[in-house]
Design brief:
Elements (H helix, E strand, L loop, with lengths): L2 H11 L5 H12 L3 H6 L1 H22 L2 H4 L2 E2 L22 E7 L8 E7 L3 E8 L5 H24 L6 E2 L12 E2 L2 E2 L2 H6 L8 E6 H4 L4 H23 L4 H10 L4
Antiparallel strand pairs: 1-2, 2-3, 3-4, 4-8, 5-8, 6-7
Amino acid sequence: MSPIIRKEEATLRTTPFGHAAFELLAGIHANPTKLYYQSHKEAFKAEVEEPFQQVFRQVMSALPPPIAAQMETQEHLFSRFLKNDYGRGGAWDFLWGACYTKGGRRTEGAQLYLHIDRNVLKLGFYIGVYAGGLHERFTRNCRAHGPEMLPYLRRVLPETMVSFDTNDTGVRIAPASRGNVRVTWESYLRNPYLLENDVCIRMPRTEVTKATGQALVAKIRDTHVRLFPLVLLAVHEDPMPAIRQYVGSVGLR
């Protein structure tokens, strides 16, 4: 058995993210610089980057064939802490990974993602900021097929479970809201672009630090399986035949 396999199996049995991981993420939030990251590089690798990648790769290997056939699950999945900012020495205060439509890129495609920062682990659906026409197609399909999609989404991911909008940085889990306005699946489907096309489940750090790798992999996989029809809304001009076939094939009817 290879060391990589042993390490991944150990991650599944234990809690991958301890308090040290979130302390490091809080530190880089307060001091988002290359110097801070490099001063704690080995700790970031051991406490955040390696566990994050191991959990996400386990999720990728557990996705059902209809998703694996359409999404890139092997290459260029992960972000880095250090910014490509032409030598200014900045660093991001979060880490994210995503499987995205084959032939595209993380920043361009419809994706199923995982994100960790000092407060939360987020698992959800998003469309990359450089996705161009995908944003328009997704909005058009959400509006056109919202009446058929709404019962499915309410059933498999009730509004009490999900959050909307990438810029919502709080640790709230539910109900979904933006400011003083309650966000529902119905309002999301009317104008997903207003909410940056983002929908996710948030796990606060207190929950994440108690969860085994096996539990995290199961939760992330299950969420991605339920959200995959949103990817199909983004990539198909006529998405409903593919969505109906997918929902039936993975037992989500």
